[in-house]
């Protein structure tokens, strides 16, 4: 079955121009960095201040070189004249046969008409300039992010399962900037962006999309697609790009578990069976389901976590430690705490235990 899956990936074909080879400006909209939060008032104020600074600087330069300028009266230029000249020059007004001559008229142009004209420019072309500036800023941020991203987590699919997985990771202390969401639906990516997540628009079954998400440098990849065949193809592609990453995949049908394992998934969660078990338990012992939900919600109550063995715990029994230990991970293999083979904990073991939600100990 595995060779067949590989052939399906190849038949899907790669685009003529891989995303990773496109120029940065062409990646804006494919990769989206979280937007910096700025109020409209701050943006407009910054533009107005910049215009005033340019106006003062120009008029000062003209004033220092005032002997090089002439006017219709042949009188020496005053600073007001220079300021007026800078005003009509920067605003591209260019008065011809009709020009204000009195100081009051010129002051009116400087302090009333010009601010109105600047406000007009802001309303007329401000949005266009902002879009161009934002595009350049996004391209620069994408370049910097691609150079620096390491040991992050990629979430493939931002449906119900993907959002819940992100909630669990953030609740367990993972920063949003360390999570990259890959999906084909722009609407769900927009929702992810509001949470401060980096997003990549495209199908995770394509290697260039996963490369753009930084898969070769990822520490973990969560496959939470809505279809089992997509999960298999995405997992296979991810494993080829990230041989050392931990890949966790979710599927609907248990019969497809072996396909995920063959494709390279380290852990497989069968969503339909897990939900079914909880439903069955809830009919007789609903409190058990409530406790399980508590354990699976890291930001409140209790949570199941993993940590290294402390120095003073080496040689002790895992059932007599200060934490409630459920299992011991030794050489990559998880063993229940009641197994005789883990009578004592060793230096390189890791403990699967129950911790309080606000416990600061991390993995």
Automatic annotation (TrEMBL):
Keywords: Ion channel, Ion transport, Membrane, Transmembrane, Transmembrane helix, Transport. PROSITE patterns: RCK_N. The chain crosses the membrane at residues 44-64, 110-132. SUPFAM superfamilies: NAD(P)-binding Rossmann-fold domains, Voltage-gated potassium channels. It is found in: Cell membrane. One of its GO terms (cellular component) is plasma membrane. Residues 150-270 form the RCK N-terminal domain. Pfam families: Ion_trans_2, TrkA_N. InterPro entries: K_chnl_dom (IPR013099), NAD(P)-bd_dom_sf (IPR036291), RCK_N (IPR003148), Trk_Ktr_HKT_K-transport (IPR050721). Its main location: membrane. The keyword ATP-binding does not apply. One of its GO terms (biological process) is monoatomic ion transmembrane transport. It is a multi-pass membrane protein. This is Putative potassium channel protein. The lineage of its organism: Bacteria, Bacillati, Actinomycetota, Actinomycetes, Mycobacteriales.
């Amino acid at each position: 079955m595995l060779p067949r899956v590989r052939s399906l990936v190849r038949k899907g074909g790669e685009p003529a121009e891989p995303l990773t080879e496109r120029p940065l400006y062409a990646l804006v909209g494919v990769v989206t960095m979280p937007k910096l939060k700025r109020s409209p008032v701050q943006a407009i104020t910054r533009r107005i201040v910049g215009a005033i600074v340019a106006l003062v600087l120009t008029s000062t330069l003209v004033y220092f070189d005032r002997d090089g300028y002439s006017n219709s009266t042949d009188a020496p230029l005053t600073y007001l004249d220079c300021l007026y000249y800078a005003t009509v020059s920067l605003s591209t007004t260019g008065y011809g046969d009709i020009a204000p001559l009195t100081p009051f008229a010129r002051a009116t142009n400087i302090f009333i008409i010009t601010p109105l004209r600047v406000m007009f420019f802001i309303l007329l072309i401000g949005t266009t300039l902002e879009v161009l500036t934002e595009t350049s800023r996004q391209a620069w941020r994408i370049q910097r992010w691609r150079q620096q991203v390491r040991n992050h987590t990629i979430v493939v699919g931002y449906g119900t399962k993907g959002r819940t997985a992100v909630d669990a990771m953030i609740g367990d202390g993972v920063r949003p900037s360390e999570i990259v969401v890959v999906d084909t639906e722009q609407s769900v990516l927009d929702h992810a962006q509001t949470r401060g997540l980096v997003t990549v628009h495209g199908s995770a079954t394509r290697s260039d999309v996963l490369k753009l998400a930084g898969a070769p440098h990822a520490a973990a990849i969560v496959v939470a697609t809505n279809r089992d065949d997509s999960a298999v193809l995405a997992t296979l592609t991810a494993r080829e790009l990230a041989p050392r990453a931990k890949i966790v995949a979710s599927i609907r049908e248990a019969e497809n578990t072996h396909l995920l394992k063959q494709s390279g998934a380290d852990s497989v969660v069968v969503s339909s069976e897990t939900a079914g078990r909880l439903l069955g338990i809830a009919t007789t012992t609903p409190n058990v389901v409530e406790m399980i939900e508590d354990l699976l919600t890291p930001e409140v109550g209790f949570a199941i976590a993993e940590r290294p063995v402390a120095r003073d715990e080496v040689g002790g029994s895992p059932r007599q430690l200060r934490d409630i230990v459920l299992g011991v991970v030794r050489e990559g293999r998880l063993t229940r705490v009641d197994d005789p083979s883990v009578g004592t904990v060793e230096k390189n073991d890791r403990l699967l235990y129950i911790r309080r939600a606000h416990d600061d100990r991390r993995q």
